[in-house]
Amino acid sequence: MDSLLLMASLVTAIGYEGPGDFLMDAEGRLSRVPEKKISPFAYPGVYIVHPRLFDGAKPGAFSVNPFWDLAIERGRLYGIRLDGVWIHVGTPEAVAEAEAYLADLLPA
Question: CB neighbours (10 Å) of residue 36?
């Protein structure tokens, strides 16, 4: 395993409107979503990575996406499903939806 990504189920996600980010098999191995397809999972930005994934990386800022593609090619990119609700607040509408959800959790 080169990296383990947290994967949020779109069924329990709040405020996320995208098509999902990765497909995940029964063993947790991740792959990219083919064009014109959707995934039941979104990547909320949490991961654990083995340093070897970045072997050969140039100094400075870079996108990790090409490295995930490399890990996918090697069969070494995995995901673990978040058991719970993921709240995405990327738009004003999503913030309002999140606030309403959280308000419902408070005792009367």
Answer: 6
Neighbours of 45 (CB within 10 A): 9
Q: Buried (b) or exposed (e) across 61-97, using 16+ Cβ within 10 A?
A: eeeeeebbebbbeeebbbbeebeeebbbeeeeebeeb
Check which CATH number belongs to the domain holding 42 and give it: 3.90.550.10
**How confident is the model over 94-108, as a mean pLDDT?**
87
- Domain limits for position 75: 3-105
- Condensed to tens digits (0 to 9), the pLDDT of residues 49-60 reads 999 999 989 899
Average pLDDT over residues 55-75: 94
